[in-house]
């Protein structure tokens, strides 16, 4: 069985993990220019990932495998939770509140980890099976982002 | 939330019976303290963690989790108290009552968790470790009951009485390595890479560490039954632990998240303590410092470190979920560090570290005139650390309730 979707999307998760770690590293010397840039990079990378899922992979999956609608809904509601944290993060950057910045990144980290675990162990393998020959297209699009 | 109270009780005995405890592992106060920590603190938290983790990691929720969880907790609490006071006062009736209550508790827990583990999918090595850990818990219980029967002078176990200390060692090894050690390994395979973004554990380790521990314990048990030496079996099991601890420290050294938080410090302490305990055993060291390293260095450390992450995250997660589903965006949910501030967690770790060092020094040099005071001070520091941990937990859950009310 192909695991192209699982591989490509999991790899993008790791790229986002690196960005989050970089945003935390940037806080070491309270250099707000660096912290602002790192936070922006992180939010952009994660939004790109959500975009690929919400407007491409998830609709295709729920169309050819309707039973996936409910787990997809859970994943999308967690995306909404993360977007709330993005707003809080940007607000902490604007207010130069270092402890809020770090606390929000920590919260985001844990939310992302448990979210990714569910996607990587359930939803992506399901997509690989259900989308069959089309899986390669989604994987390539994710890799190109 | 009840677990820290048992550790507080253990700390109280350390303060009151400082002259007895670390001088010999056989004093009633020592036996009571160890069981308060092992059952009341550690096993209670581990059982709760299994109920929480099985649905998330293995897609297999425990059937009637709330009911079984509550029943297990009540039985464990009562059984631990009966057993510990039975050991402390040498009261035979309490010992029997404690043993039987704990037996019912472990059977109920094993039945519920065992059924969920049979259905479990995914996280192959973690699920394997959980299955072996459950077997470890059963064997520890069986050996414990056997020892109680021996203490009470039952005819059928009289043959074992000459070897009493060796059977206690076997009970201890199954509990510490077979139950605690194996479960820690299985959980670590998931949480260590997740918490601090480290490389995953290598496959060779996940394939071999838990089986090495279990095989070592089986070999030691068999050797014991045949009247032979147990060093080969224990040696194999401890090698498994030693290699696991080394690999864990290496993974954490290569982590991507740069910050050193209390959870990471607790993991470092626990892994270093586990390695020191294994090496000390190999060099024929005294049991008392090995006991401090195992029960305080690992047994108090790991649950404390994990609670600092799990409690704030679950509080935040549940509140945020309710906020989204109720569309109550007028309430602002605080982030994780607001539930348990990082600084408080670091101070709590500092107190804990003082207690570990004091107790370790007292266990290494029990003949020193002031070692009694080291134990007492160590007990006080333990009480301070655990009391502070408990207060932080209470504060976190009070904050959760207050926001929960506002979202209602």
Automatic annotation (TrEMBL), chain A:
Pfam family, one: Hemerythrin
Protein name: Hemerythrin HHE cation binding domain protein
Top-level taxonomic group: Bacteria
Entry-linked Gene3D superfamilies: nmb1532 protein domain like
InterPro entries: Hemerythrin-like
Domain Hemerythrin-like: 5-127
Automatic annotation (TrEMBL), chain B:
Assigned keywords, A-Z: Membrane, Transmembrane, Transmembrane helix
Residues passing through the membrane, by range: 34-54, 66-89, 95-117, 129-152, 172-192, 204-224, 230-249, 265-284, 290-319, 345-365, 371-392
Domain of life: Bacteria
Transmembrane helix among keywords: yes
UniProt name for this protein: Uncharacterized protein
